[in-house]
Amino acid sequence: MITELSQNQPETLSNDPKTMKRIEIALKKSKELDQTAMMDLYSQAFRFADCDKQYWNPEAFSLLFETPLWHQATQAQKVKLNQLFWVAYYSQIISAEIATIFFNQTSAAALYAIEDFRPVCDTLDLESAQERAHIHVFKHVSEQIELELFGERLFTYPMRTPFVKTMLYSDLSKVRQWIRTQQLRAFTVLSSSSAFLGCQYFTVRGLRTLNGKIVQHQLSKFYTGHPSQENAPIPSRISYSHFLDESFHFNTSTIVSHDALRSVPKPSKFESLVGNMTIWGCQKDHYHFSTAINGIFWHDPALFPTILRLLRSRIFGMSKTEALDMMWACFCEESEGMHASARTHRQSVDSYKAYLSDFDHLNAANKEMRLMSSNSLEKHLATNRKAFRKFRRTAEAAS
């Protein structure tokens, strides 16, 4: 007797019960530990005046930590650098999560065509709702801080579409940014109609989240190790809740990109080419490391105008000449802060290689992270020095 109609698909997730079980368990746990309600409470409760004199992160996660600016700063200024790391870091996370919400849905559109992928798609729906809560609280807190400290934006920005560059401070020219936008639009179409490319998106997402885990685990420890958690500053509690959610998101990325991938049709040569292009694009985004903020791969020269405004703000009160001299010392001379950022970059390279080691469709340049690995402290310094000389001439001429 026939008990089930044939679906005429050789690739189904039900043929891989081990992976199916992992997905179902991950979704159940993610629902149980969902931090959306806590994020909304934190957003409503946050008042900058309640924690404006406290560290929000471990001291090492402060803007321009262990640079000449840090060593010359007063204790009150160090507190502000620590808080501004939080603002800058999560402003970058907002940009990434806007893209995540969008590409979760386009990728799910392709996976709906494969039998038994409902639990994967349900997981993505939950994650997208969580990302919206993350974005709201990060934006609300960061904008309140910048309004109070500066009366204007430094690191924050109005809401944007996922087709604006994901890396806030990059080395993309206007032409290259336009090309990147067209590539993202093309990938939107391709990933929504190809189950393989839908899964491939989670390979890229896994790399980006893997880098985030390196930093966010450390940020979460500020709350878990706080001597009085009920009195811990709200931003540190937000960091902890975000880390919990993102840990499940990374788990999803790993399962879909590594395990569920076996249940979709093998890639064509064109799909393999596009898959390699996405990883190469990630290498480009993560090629640089920033002296200003350890753990985010910003292009320091793109940060120069923002840092100049910070140094000339009432927090530091420097003259233009003093600020420019300090910027040369921080960005163009070696420091422990610069070395720490370089170490984090190398750690990410090694983690990415391990994450990609079992993908047969990737070429050697991607599996070995050749582009990202080619950066160095010497190249970083040379890039910063060349760009800063030009920036200084322009800044001094403006006076």
Descriptive account of the structure:
By secondary structure, this protein is mostly helical. The protein has one domain (15-398). Helices cover 68% and strands 0% of the residues. It is built from 16 helices and no strands. It has helices spanning 17-32, 36-45, 48-51, 68-72, 75-111, 118-149, 174-191, 195-224, 234-259, 269-285, 300-312, 320-331, 336-356, 364-367, 370-373, 377-398. Helix 2 packs antiparallel against helix 9, helix 11 packs antiparallel against helix 12 and helix 12 (320-331) packs antiparallel against helix 16 (377-398). The chain is globular. The model has no long low-confidence stretch (mean pLDDT 92).
Return the structural class. mainly alpha
Please give the domain count. Answer: 1
Largest sheet: none
> How much helix is in the residues?
55-70%
Radius of gyration, in Å, reads 22 Å
Shape: globular
Strand elements, count: 0
Mean pLDDT metric: 92
Give the termini distance in whole angstroms: 87 Å
Low-confidence segments, given as residue ranges, are: none
Number of helices: 16
Helix-strand topology string: HHHHHHHHHHHHHHHH
List the helices and strands and how they pair.
Blueprint: H1 17-32, H2 36-45, H3 48-51, H4 68-72, H5 75-111, H6 118-149, H7 174-191, H8 195-224, H9 234-259, H10 269-285, H11 300-312, H12 320-331, H13 336-356, H14 364-367, H15 370-373, H16 377-398
Helix pairs in contact: 1-6, 1-9, 2-6, 2-9, 5-6, 5-8, 6-9, 8-9, 8-10, 8-13, 11-12, 11-16, 12-16
Q: What's the quick description here?
A:
The chain is mostly helical.
